[in-house]
Amino acid sequence: MKREDLQLYFIMGTSNVPPQQQPIYILEKALQAGITMFQFREKGPHALTGLAYEQFARQCQKLCHQYNVPFIVNDDIELAIRLEADGVHIGQDDFPVGEARKKIGNMILGVSVHCEEELQIAINHQADYVGIGPIFPTSSKSDARPPCGTSFLQQARSLHPELPIVAIGGINCTNAQTVFQTGADGVAVISAICESEDVEHTVNTFRSLSCINK
Ligand SMILES: Cc1ncc(COP(=O)(O)OP(=O)(O)O)c(N)n1
Ligand SMILES: Cc1nc(C(=O)O)sc1CCOP(=O)(O)O
Ligand SMILES: [Mg+2]
Predict the structure, then answer these.
(1) Ligand 1 centre from 204 Cα, in Å?
(2) What DSSP element (H or E) covers 129?
(3) 3-state secondary structure of 204
(4) What's the CATH number where 176 sits?
(5) Catalytic status, residue 3
(6) Neighbours of 99 (CB within 10 A)
(7) Which pLDDT tens digit goes with each residue over 154-175?
């Protein structure tokens, strides 16, 4: 994985998409416009299960493959292994980082971290990147922690200048610049793209903001 892959990391599941919109169509528009990484995150009260869940994952994977964009599975390590996904993203309550690393071998491993200790454990187990958030309030994750602002992001960047870091939570085209200026390699977003009326414009705006400070 390259650090640049984190630049605009789109996360989506069926429950994130407004009614009358097709999730796979939104993903295709986002890929066409230039997202750099995708995470399949199918959770929430009306989430797909069983065969429909796996078929949807495979559909998303196929599209990502066509656009040469890494396909990451949220939480479900077994699905990631079965599909030969590019990687897995886990949080602190999902799976011990060391066990995840053993199970997935060389696949990309992303880990959510909220403090120095979690950060160090992720690094010790060769996490390929860390996710830090929620930076701002979010309505896309029902069990999100209180917003943490950019202070831990700033601390993580100064402690580990070379570590791939993606910021997440309530990030939109208006506040993304602050996040890039703090040192994130990229932003991970759900609603900013899923609820956008012009996905191409939104993607282009995020990507231009990410370059301003480089
Ligand atoms: C890139 C990225 N960062 C953080 C998360 C959150 O992971 P987690 O805390 O495990 O919460 P869920 O997404 O599983 O609800 C993420 N998914 N991606
Ligand atoms: C999936 C997720 N994880 C978070 C964390 O803080 O770890 S916040 C979040 C939701 C991000 O969605 P939106 O871009 O719509 O705010
Ligand atoms: Mg998780």
Answers:
(1) 24
(2) strand 129-132
(3) helix
(4) 3.20.20.70
(5) no
(6) 12
(7) 999 999 999 999 999 999 999 9
